[in-house]
Amino acid sequence: MPLSRRALLTTTGAALLLGAAPPALARPRPTTTADAIRQIPLQGAVNVRDLGGYVTYDGARVRHGLAYRGDHLAKLTDADLATLAGLGLGTVVDLRIPMEVGYDGADRLPAGAVPVARPVTDHGLFGQLMAAIGSRDPVRQEEMLGGGRAAAFMREVYRTFVTDPANRAALAATLRDLADPRRGPLLLHCTSGKDRTGWTSWLLLTLLGVPETSARADYLASNAFRAAYDARVREGLKQGGLMQNPDLIVPLQEVRAEYLDTALDQVRTSYGSLFRYVSVGLGLELRELAALRERLVPDA
Questions:
Q1: Distances from the Cα of 22 to the Cα of 25, 163, 271, 282, 285, angstroms
Q2: Catalytic residue positions?
Q3: I need a surface site. Which of 41, 73, 178, 225 has the fewest CB within 10 A?
C-alpha cells in the first residue's frame, strides 16, 4: 500500500525530493538509546551491523532485521555462518572490485543467501595500498602516503561516489534492492565496510529520515569497530619488515568526517543538492523512495 502523503512529507528523504532542507537539520535531535548500534558479533568479520533501530525525525524507527552493513565475509568461520543463517539473509551485495575479491577471497555465505557482485570502484585505493606496502621502501611509502597524501587520496575516493556513473548505478541498484521485499533481508559490504558501505548506509539512513547526528554517528562508528583489528594490521606490517612507519596507512584505514563532507561537497558541486543527486544522479523516483520508506520504516 502506498505511503500516506503525511508520512512521506515528514521524512528527511521526502524533503530532499521536494528540493528543501528539513528544518530539523538546523536543530538535530540528540542520539537516543534507541539509536544504539547493533553489531553482529562474528569471528571472521569485525564491522557487521544491523542498520535498524534508528529514530527518524517523525518519531518512527528503522526496522531491525532487514538492512545490514558489513566488511568482507571471506574469512567467516562455521560458527559465523550459523550466526548469519539466523538472520535469514536473502541477498548479500558485494561492493568490492575483482582485485579485492581475488586477494581476500569470495564471501562465505549461509544457505539461502543470494550473492550479488556489484563493484563500486575504490579509485585505485586497494592497488595503491598494495603497491606501497609491497615496495618495502620507506622512502617510496612516504612519497606515496605521507604529507597528507593518503587523506587526499581518500577524499578523491569519496568524490567518485558522486561523479562516477558506474558507481552511481551500483548505489541506485542497491537502494532499489533494499526497497524490494522479494529480496529478503539484505547485507551490503565492501572490504572494510567503511567507505563504499559507509556512504551507501549514510545515504540510506538519510533517505529514511534519520537525523544527521545519527546517520553520521553510524558512519563514524567504523573507527571503533575496526580499531583493534587495524592496529594489529599495522603492528604486523612493522614486525614483518614491510613498513617502518605503518601509521602512514592510518588515513586509509579510518573513516573521517572530512571524507563524508568531501562527498557532500561534490554533491553540491555536481548536482546543487542531495535531492538532485538522488533523483537525477541515481535516477531514483519518488515512488521508489516511498517503497524504501514503506518497507524499512513503519508509520510513526
A1: 6, 25, 18, 20, 19
A2: 190
A3: 41
